[in-house]
Give the backbone structure.
Amino acid sequence: MKNSAIVGINWGDEGKGRIVDLLCGSYDFVVRYQGGGNAGHTVVIEQGKFALHLIPSGIFHKGIINILGNGVAVDPESLYEEIEMLRNRGIDVGPHNLKISDRASILFPWHKMLDALEEERLKDKKYGSTKQGIAPFYSDKYQKKTVLLGELLYNKNLKEHVKDILEWKNLTLSGVYKAEPLSFEYISKWIDEYKEKLAPYICDTGKLLKQAEKEGKSVLFEAQLGSLRDLDYGIYPYTTSSNTLASYIPLGSGLASAKIDEIIGIVKAYSTCVGEGPFVSEWFGPDAEKLREVGMEYGAKTGRPRRVGPIDLVATRYGVEVQNATCIALTKLDCLSYMDKIPVCVRYELNGKEINDFPFPSLLDECKPVIEYMDGWKKDISKVRRWFDLPEEAKKYILYIEKAIGCPIKYISVGQERNAYIER
Ligand code: GDP
Ligand code: MG
């Protein structure tokens, strides 16, 4: 039995979905343990390009059971849409290969409304939410004001529970934001509709994983977003509202005893960041546009142009440390092939001093990147499949990063497609 985790080291969008799809073939389960429909994990296979939001990236492999753990924000509407989208494109999805934890909470329409209303109220102070209701959802969960998916199956007083919560929510919707309150009839129908559609998928996934553990089966845990968006360790308040770190796996997956043998951290060969918040190595102008174009850096969920810049070794080293990563998959190396010189943010300058350690979040605005340049390789590397066939300059770049972040780079991805990678 071997359990592994695939986690983001940077701000998200490092290529987690792509690497999960690549490596999950030797696992029995792929489990999402946090986050929700704000994720956008892209997988490119023979049937085309797929953007997954809630469904784990193991769904394209036969024989794998995909699980949404109790830590996930399950929006039944988006989830069902995603199931239909996959089925319409010929992907097999059903209760045999997709299971939802009965202990996961339901993300309701009011969560999305409140998310949008609050971003609207904040105007230029907004957090850059994807408006999927994630922050209101997790706040409510902490307040014990959510409904568990298992209640759709077992709670005889389900509608009363929902009615109580709706009454409380409407106080905020109409009282605070002066919005239209939601009617109980609407929510009641909504519940009936998704109960019918999703009931076959809901079960005690914790029990399933415990049994799998006893039988020596293997689990791959799939994170959403990256280290710097972790609620506790990230660039608060420009984080997400859940814990993206591997250390949250035993809590959010449903397998409290989870032992993780390998934590594979995904690092992008340059930096990208979607939404608001400090981003020290950010580029602007034509350099940024060129990199964004080459890397096709537009959000998989929102289509928003991603902010881009050179790789940030200060932030990446911190990401590796807080994830406790045991090895790294470096993605999108092919996207740097056009550069004569490759910029690397090696340190920050803060108040006239150079620093190596990632500082307290509010100090990031005062940090300036210290950039060094490495030689580019100026060759197409997207067809390279062996370490020894990489140009010397590319090897030097990889080895430099490896040394700086103190973690072995085991996989190098040079394209979107499943087989476009090098294993060292
Ligand atoms: P995730 O959220 O971490 O799963 O990453 P996203 O899917 O949001 O963004 C990563 C993007 O980069 C996707 O469009 C991937 O298809 C693409 N991608 C991943 N690895 C590579 C690579 O090595 N080279 C290139 N050119 N694209 C890649
Ligand atoms: Mg993404």
